[in-house]
Amino acid sequence: MFPGNPRQMQQMLKQMGIKSREIDANKVIIEGKDGTNIIIEQPSITEMDMKGEKNFTIAGKVREETAINEEDVSLIMEATNVKREEAIKALKEEGDVASAIVKLQN
Q1: What percent of the chain is modeled with pLDDT above 70?
Q2: What is the pLDDT of residues 4-34, one digit of tens each?
Q3: Sign of CA dihedral 41, 24, 9, 47
Q4: 20 strand-pairing partners
Q5: Could you give the CA distance from residue 46 to residue 53 in angstroms, rounded to a whole number?
Q6: At what angle do helices 70-80 and 84-94 cross, to 10 degrees?
Q7: CB atoms within 10 A of CB 47
Q8: Are the C-beta atoms of 47 and 55 separated by less than 8 Å?
Q9: What share of the chain in percent tops pLDDT 90?
Q10: How many whole angstroms separate alpha carbon 92 and alpha carbon 61?
Q11: CA neighbours within 13 Å on the CB side: how many for 20?
């Protein structure tokens, strides 16, 4: 149905009134409501404009990471007198502030 040649694909989209362009980017970050971020590195991004509505197709190397709450990190650092990196590591390993503090105090 769709041609394999990118140039032919562009021409076909143009005939249907769909504008497309490649977007040059280093990284795409999708911030999830649950605190999990999806990071797409070395992305290939295509923007398609169909009658004023924009759609993006993104492909690349995907990894997930949990967002760190800076207030939690500060609280752990103050309670345990450790450096930021140690507080973040404990928070990631334990999953919550109280467990991270207990771990670092032992």
Answers
A1: 96
A2: 677 787 788 888 888 888 999 999 999 988 7
A3: positive
A4: 48
A5: 14
A6: 110
A7: 14
A8: yes
A9: 62
A10: 22
A11: 19
